[in-house]
Write a structure and sequence with these properties.
The protein has helices at 5-44, 107-115, 174-200, 204-216, 221-257, 273-294, 296-300, 302-306, 322-337, 345-381, 385-396, 399-429, 447-452, 488-494, 590-603, 616-654, 656-664, 669-705, 716-735, 746-750; strands at 47-48, 63-71, 74-82, 102-105, 126-130, 142-147, 157-158, 161-162, 435-441, 461-471, 478-485, 497-498, 507-511, 526-532, 537-543, 548-552, 564-566, 576-577, 580-587, 610-611. The chain has 751 residues and is α+β, with helices and mostly antiparallel strands. Strands 9, 10, 11, 12, 13, 14, 15, 16, 17, 18, 19 and 20 form a twelve-stranded mixed β-sheet that branches. The radius of gyration is 34 Å and the shape is elongated.
């Protein structure tokens, strides 16, 4: 603190830089804790049935039915509860179980029901209260407890208590969470390590000269390293405290506003002990090692430092990590191009992270080598004074390019990896079929409901599927087939193309898009189809015919998916299959899908509906993953830009003496600015170009190993190139003001 205003300013900058880095690190480390807290609350409210020593469910007259419906792309959960005679503790967030006709909803669902009156049919009863935060995964969850009379629920489960060790469906699956961790590590943690190293080495040249002076005055080698490390650790400790405090403040503000598709309670993001230890001890430990390493040169050879000896050229061993990294990713790319995508995910799950780490490390370590080689070649062939001065400086001091360009280079490289993850997620969520299918189980449906559901507004076709069984006379093994109960007109309304169909005849069904003829049931075999009419049960034999009816089903959803078609005229009057499902079809327009689901709920809100291709839990998970990746990209952008600004400003300050000497020798200010821009822009451009190439190769190899349908995606290349060009332009503009107007010869005399 007593070594002048410049040193105090450097200490403040190091502290602020450490604070920014620690705040970003705490945000990344808090994400698993937020997801775990949400999963714990979901597990605590899960209805369950206690079991006896034989594993049988305890006898109880209380019942529960949980239905999950899509409201747009968000899941909406309805828990129907029929109270019994025994007292059952209520789930978290409620003071008592709902009585018949009572309704408890989450705050978000309370607002939705006030604006969308059409949803009221799905929630029979009168609102009696709001579910507390302990009973909700997050503040925006759509959740409701509905009280119904006993005997009203069909397909229900016995209820004795609430709470399970694990949630039925985690907020983010473990495999997906591993991808998020890996991507965030590349997008945030790699640039963060560079940024913290840059902050720990501010004014490195001036500090190295001061440390060399201490060594010449008699301080031993370890003492010099401890002086520098102690100063660095002091700023890191203070920065860690400020960064943790800043994170807590940001958590309180952002959690109340929320992010697109992801919201949490402030307590979920509270700093945990592992996060405090990693940020409070890990960052100072990193500063300690960086401080000792940066003082090693001054401690070992102080005379060379004081006399400004020419530094040793960077070792070509820095190119070594690029070789195996590029070998792995290009190998996967070639395998994908030749149609031999790898199927062994265990090997790929190891090789892909290894290749990504090797490429990231190779980008960092190869920049000084490439910068020096390019600078020497350009300096030998150029006739420009400013270009020659700039390239000779980069040739002598190639490490300067590393400090300035590394943050932005790693950011572009990580952005390409994140793009690969988003492409794979888009393949999962893409719904290309123009038709939406809904499956309604026949078990529990009354005859009136079966007649009303096909007339729901928006439904344009329907068929009934039954399950027919046959028992082998040889080994007693039971096999089953799906029997389609429909007329020719109903089938034409369901499929894309239908062959010659005659009503009144039972036929085998064969999808023309499916070449597996062996999958057809054998002619002459007899299956038994169980029927019911609400009061009576009976079974009719179905003998598989020889004739085949060819058709082309709806792509991606399989609306027919049956082995034989049975005309309704062949079945007894007023009878329908006992086991199977009613299949409804509508347009895949989101508004139509929402209207059909609301119409089904209006017939009976307890009917279980399975919309084909609409996995609302998966959609919610993907929305959360995209939000987390966007947060990681924003943090990476902040860190990368901050690292560039700090390194560029610090490098300009360190070069003031050299700039002054050139000015006294007669160099014009325009020439000096051109030199400064060229010194930064050329190494940065080379690094960014290398980052785009290696990033796209890593992205393509990730898609090849992911098992998706898309291996090569060129849509993101213009964006990456535009980002790289933008970074170069910003770097050039940022270098212009770093040449001051005032020439201070004192800088040379003092040195």
């Amino acid at each position: 603190m007593g070594s002048g205003r410049g040193n105090r300013a450097r200490f403040v900058l190091m502290t602020l830089g450490s604070a920014v880095g620690v705040a970003c690190l705490a945000a990344v480390l808090a994400i698993p804790g937020i997801l775990a807290a949400q999963d714990a609350r979901m597990a605590a409210r899960e209805p369950t049935c206690g079991r006896d020593a034989q594993g049988r469910c305890l006898r109880t007259d209380a019942a529960v039915l949980t239905l999950l419906d899509p409201l747009g792309s968000r899941p909406m959960t309805r828990v129907f509860i029929a109270r019994g005679t025994r007292h059952i503790p209520p789930p978290p967030g409620l003071h008592a179980l709902p009585r018949p006709g009572e309704l408890f909803v989450s705050p978000r669902l309370h607002d939705v029901l006030r604006t969308e009156r059409g949803l009221s049919a799905l929630f029979p009863g009168k609102e009696a209260g709001i579910i507390g935060p302990r009973g909700l995964a997050h503040p925006d969850e759509l959740y409701a407890y509905v009280g119904v009379p006993r005997g009203k629920l069909h397909q229900s489960h016995a209820l004795t208590s609430f709470g399970e060790p694990y949630p039925p469906s985690p907020t983010v699956e473990d495999g997906t969470l591993d991808i998020v961790r890996f991507t965030l590590a590349g997008v945030v943690l790699l640039p963060l390590a560079v940024f913290l190293s840059v902050c720990a080495r501010l004014s490195a040249a001036a500090r190295t000269r001061r440390l060399a002076a201490l060594r010449l005055l008699g301080l031993n080698t370890k003492g010099v390293q401890r002086v520098n490390a102690g100063e660095t650790v002091a700023s890191a400790v203070l920065g860690a405290a400020l960064g943790l405090a800043a994170y807590e403040l940001i958590n309180q503000m952002v959690s109340r506003v929320g992010l697109p598709g992801f919201k949490w309670y402030p307590s979920d993001g509270t700093l945990t002990l592992p996060t405090l230890l990693i940020c409070g001890l890990g960052c100072p430990a990193l500063a300690w090692f960086v401080g000792r390493a940066s003082a090693r040169k001054a401690a070992n050879n102080p005379l060379a430092v004081r006399r400004t000896a020419v530094p040793k050229p960077p070792s070509k061993w820095g190119l070594l990590p690029l070789v195996p990294g590029l070998g792995i990713v290009f190998g996967y790319c070639v395998a994908g191009a030749m149609g031999h995508a790898p199927r062994d995910t265990r090997v790929s799950s190891v090789l892909m992270p290894v290749s990504v780490v090797l490429l990231g490390a190779g980008l960092v370590l190869s920049l000084p080598v490439l910068s020096r080689a390019m600078a020497r070649r350009v300096a030998q062939g150029t006739g420009s004074l400013s270009m020659g001065l700039a390239m000779r400086r980069n040739e002598v001091e190639p490490g300067g390019a590393l400090r300035v360009a590394t943050g932005l280079v790693l950011l572009v490289y990580a952005a390409s990896l994140a793009q690969g993850v988003l492409i794979e997620l888009d393949q999962v969520t893409k719904h290309e079929s123009p038709v939406q299918m809904y499956g309604v189980p026949l078990e529990g449906l009354t005859a009136e409901q079966l007649q009303a559901l096909p007339h729901v507004e928006g439904v344009r076709a329907h068929v009934v599927k039954g399950r027919a069984e046959a028992k082998s006379q040889v080994d007693g093994y039971t096999s089953d087939i799906t029997a389609l109960v429909a007329t020719c007109g109903q089938m034409r309304a369901v499929v894309r193309q239908l062959g010659k169909c005659e009503d009144g005849r039972m036929l085998r069904l064969f999808d023309s898009d499916d070449a597996d003829v062996e999958a057809l049931p054998k002619p002459g075999r007899v299956y038994s189809l169980a029927l019911q009419n609400g009061k009576d049960h009976r079974a009719v034999p179905l003998k598989v015919p020889t004739e085949v009816l060819r058709y082309r089903d709806q792509p991606g959803i399989g609306a027919i998916s049956a082995a034989v078609v049975v005309p309704p005229s062949l079945l007894p009057a007023d009878y329908r299959p006992q086991f199977g499902e009613l299949t409804l079809l509508s347009s895949s327009d989101p508004g139509t899908v929402r209207g059909v689901l609301d119409g089904i709920g209006a017939v009976d809100p307890t009917i279980e509906v399975l919309p084909a291709g609409v996995n609302v839990e998966a959609l919610q998970q993907i929305s959360i993953v995209k939000t987390l990746l966007a947060v990681g990209m924003v943090l990476g952008l902040v860190i990368g830009v901050a690292a560039y600004l700090v390194a560029a400003a610090d490098r300009a300050v360190e070069r003031r003496a050299q700039v002054t000497a050139l000015a006294l020798l007669g160099a014009r200010r325009r020439t000096l600015r051109a030199v400064q821009v060229a010194q930064v822009v050329l190494p940065l451009a080379v690094g960014l170009l290398l980052a785009v190439v290696t990033g796209k190769a890593a992205e393509s190899s990730y898609l090849v190993t992911g098992g998706g349908a898309v291996f090569w995606d060129g849509d993101g290349v213009p964006l990456l190139l535009a980002s790289a060009v933008g970074a170069v332009v910003v770097a050039a503009l940022g270098a212009l003001p770093l040449i001051g107007r005032r020439i201070d010869p004192e800088l040379i005399r003092r040195d």
